[in-house]
Structures are given as structure tokens and as C-alpha cells.
Design goal:
By secondary structure, the chain is an alpha/beta fold. It is built from 10 helices and 13 strands. It is globular, with a radius of gyration of 18 Å.
């Protein structure tokens, strides 16, 4: 694993986005893995190691999360800014095309880029997200996003992560600790805090108005082969919406993961294998 940063620009100045990468740095085949709203690129460690023989796997910390810098104007934490940052990252990687795996917010960023004319995305995996986002799930997420809790220890932080992320499914103690370590950091007072800018909640809270978010025109502009992964118990992506995604736009192939809600985390080979098969299909 290698750690890097890339400088990006937004409407209110420059910021640095951190990313990790796995595999041969000269491999022209690149897989970008982009995380969910309050998570970070290290969520994909297991998947990245599994695919490093085939890809240069690149896992960014979206600005405001993980090791990336925070934006000064909180309203800039929106999908267009994230898409622009990913275009800058792809330019840094010096490749003409990429495969993309995006979880939740990372999937929305992927949809935003895949829908563009001359997009660099040639194969797309959407993990538990689609063009119709359930208002009830947005309300649930809004209850904890931006709360900035402080913890006395990493054990206390892990208890919190297990509670708010229970829908991820069943994990070993080591896996839960991994999912906690990389989204926390030592606070100024010596305690533990979440490693994301509470300001990401500012534009998010404005989108929570009791209505579903409808992005069907964006989805229908996508033309590349698409795999849709859905947690069978997901409250963010309904089964009906997932089925509609197999008939509209890129006509995604649907894979549902039993016993998981929002969202599958690809921390075992049972979840990784079908994604690997899709990504590597036809060479």
C-alpha cells in the first residue's frame, strides 16, 4: 500500500485529497474505489488486496474525510465538487479510462462522472445506491452525520461505530476494529474523535426535506456496463428501485447480499468474488 495526496481546486480555493493505492503503479488498468458519506478509502483494504494482482487499485479519502483536508466553505461539500476532484485524481494517475466501485455517496459520485460525455469510466459498480434515494434513510443518516462525538478510548469509539453501522452486517472483532481505526483520530485533548469534518452535514441537512431524491435522468445517461450491489435489507435502496435499474439506463446487473442492509463492505471473498468477476469480464 502506498499513500499519496493530490491538489484539487474548488470555488473557494485549493485543497489536498489523500489517497492510497495498491498493486503495480505502472499498471494501466485502474480501479477507483470511493467510500460512503462518513467513511474513508481504507474501507476497501480487503477488496484492494484481493484485486491488486489485476489492477492498480486507488482508494481516495473524499475531501473532508480521512486524511484529506477540510473545506473552508461547508456548502461546497457536494457531488459536483467531488466529481471535479476525481477528474483531477484521474489526471494525476495518467490513465485514459478507469473502472469504478462506489459505495453510497461514492456511487453517486460515480454516477455523476459516468453520465458525462467522454467519461473515463468504462465499467461501473454501484454499491447500495441508485437514482431514487429513500427519504426515510436520509432522515436516519441525518441523525448522526455531523454530530462530532468525542470518545474516551478507541474501544468506546468502536462501540459507537458498531451501533451506527450495524446495517453493514456481521464482522469479526478484528474487522470492526479496522472499520473504526481508519475513521477516527486522536483529538486535541488526547481522546478520540471521528476523522471527518462535521461541516459535511451542512449541505446534507438541506437535502433532507422529507422527500425522496430523484436522479433518474442522471442514471439514464450512463452507458457503460454496470453492476448494482444491494444489501437485501437496505433502507436506502429499495428492491423495487433496484429492479427498475435493471430495466432502465445501463440496465444494471443486480446482485443482492442477504443479511446486510446499507451497505455491503466487501470484507470477505464471498462479497468480493462476484464484483471481481464482473470487473474482469471480457478481459
Amino acid at each position: 500500500m502506498r499513500e499519496h495526496t493530490v491538489q484539487c481546486i474548488g470555488p473557494h480555493g485549493l485543497h489536498r485529497m489523500a489517497y492510497t493505492e495498491w498493486g503495480d503503479a505502472k499498471n494501466p488498468r485502474v480501479l477507483l474505489c470511493v467510500h460512503g458519506l462518513t467513511r474513508c478509502g481504507r474501507d476497501f483494504d480487503f477488496l484492494a488486496q484481493s484485486l491488486a494482482d489485476h489492477y492498480r487499485v486507488v482508494c481516495p479519502d473524499v475531501v473532508g474525510r480521512g486524511q484529506s483536508e477540510w473545506l473552508t466553505v461547508k456548502d461546497d461539500y457536494q457531488i459536483p465538487q467531488y466529481v471535479a476532484d476525481m477528474v483531477t485524481l484521474i489526471a494525476r494517475l495518467d490513465v485514459a479510462s478507469v473502472h469504478w466501485l462506489g459505495t453510497s455517496m461514492g456511487g453517486l459520485i460515480g454516477m455523476g462522472l459516468a453520465a458525462q460525455l467522454n467519461t473515463p469510466i468504462v465499467r461501473l459498480v454501484l454499491n447500495d445506491v441508485g437514482p431514487l434515494i429513500n427519504a426515510a434513510s436520509l432522515k436516519r443518516i441525518a441523525q448522526y452525520v455531523g454530530q462530532a462525538p468525542k470518545f474516551a478510548s478507541i474501544d468506546e469509539a468502536e462501540s459507537y461505530v458498531r451501533a451506527v453501522s450495524a446495517s453493514f452486517g456481521q464482522f469479526t472483532d478484528a474487522q470492526w476494529r479496522h472499520l473504526t481505526l481508519h475513521i477516527t483520530r486522536v483529538a486535541a485533548d488526547g481522546g478520540v474523535e471521528l476523522a471527518y469534518d462535521p461541516g459535511i452535514a451542512v449541505p446534507f441537512s438541506k437535502s433532507v426535506d422529507g422527500k425522496d431524491i430523484d436522479l433518474w435522468p442522471l442514471y439514464e445517461a450512463i452507458h457503460c456496463p454496470t453492476l448494482l450491489v444491494r444489501g437485501a435489507e437496505s433502507d436506502l435502496l429499495s428492491h423495487d428501485t433496484a429492479l427498475a435499474m435493471t430495466r432502465r439506463g445501463p440496465r444494471a446487473t443486480l446482485l443482492e447480499i442477504p443479511g446486510v442492509g446499507h451497505a455491503p463492505m466487501f470484507m470477505d471473498d464471498e462479497q468480493v468474488a462476484p464484483v471481481r468477476d464482473f470487473l474482469l469480464r471480457d478481459g
